[in-house]
Write a structure and sequence with these properties.
Layout (H helix, E strand, L loop, with lengths): L4 H7 L9 H8 L14 H9 L12 H5 L14 H11 L13 H5 L2
Catalytic activity: a ribonucleoside 5'-diphosphate + ATP = a ribonucleoside 5'-triphosphate + ADP; a 2'-deoxyribonucleoside 5'-diphosphate + ATP = a 2'-deoxyribonucleoside 5'-triphosphate + ADP
Protein name: Nucleoside diphosphate kinase
Keywords: ATP-binding, Kinase, Magnesium, Membrane, Metal-binding, Nucleotide metabolism, Nucleotide-binding, Transferase, Transmembrane, Transmembrane helix
Length: 113
């Protein structure tokens, strides 16, 4: 999707008064992005482990930010920091009819009985 400034302003409302916000806005609107919602057991903790530290200089090798990001202001990926934050952010990015509920065919093997 192409990110519109209004969506970014809602998502990052808490950062709008920061001196780096105009650069963040320019970066985030510079090209297309992929927005998605993940769900599952410990999904926030698991996702944040895959994404890596917000400061890419501190992000471990093998994480998205550790391997693909060069600077904290260009950290390549966003991941919600809690279920509550995720629910709020999902409301910014998606209409309810765009979310698909489904049961994975391997959930019994992944999570057990």
């Amino acid at each position: 999707m192409k990110l519109l400034q209004g969506l970014l302003d809602r998502h990052y409302q808490h950062l709008q008064q920061k001196p780096f916000y105009p650069a963040l806005l320019a970066y985030m609107t510079s090209g297309p992005l992929v927005a998605m919602v993940w769900e599952g057991y410990n999904v926030v903790r698991s996702t944040r482990a895959m994404v890596g530290d917000t400061d890419s200089a501190q992000a471990a090798a093998g994480t998205i930010r550790g391997d693909l990001s060069m600077h904290v202001s260009r950290n390549v990926v966003h991941a919600s920091d809690s279920v509550e934050t995720a629910l709020r952010e999902i409301g910014f990015w998606f209409q309810q009819n765009e979310l698909v509920a489904w049961e994975s065919g391997d959930s019994q093997y992944t999570y057990g009985p």
